[in-house]
Amino acid sequence: MFLLPFASYLIAEHIGVSGILAAVAAGMTITRSGVMRRAPLAMRLRANSTWAMLEFVFNGMVFLLLGLQLPGILESSLAAAEADPNVETWMLFTDIVLIYAALMLVRFGWLWTMKKFSLRFFEEETDGVRQLDVA
Fold first, then answer.
1. pTM above 0.70, yes or no
2. Domain residue spans in the chain?
3. Which sequence ranges are marked TM in the entry (predicted)?
4. How many angstroms separate the CA atoms of 60 and 54, rounded?
């Protein structure tokens, strides 16, 4: 089961479709199939710790690659801004700050909405005591 997303990636790339989407779909299929719920406890514990370690390593690799790409992106953006007389460097930085602020507002709004949604639909009050129903 561990190799299924990799195999689906290779097969999808071979036939000319998106390998990334195929790997994601394979991972979601494994999760939805419930195969791991029927596995022995020792296997589930090993799988969970392995996935946690791989997730940590891959997240670290993504941030490392992003950090390696960032100086080149910044350098080429500044060079393009200096070459174009219609673009001011301060406009680029202003755009970055505005986009960042908009993303933070969207994130805050989403989290606030989801908190209100979860409180409204997943909790019941019983004699002034909150109770979470888990089915």
1. no
2. 1-38, 40-87, 88-135
3. 6-30, 51-70, 90-112
4. 10
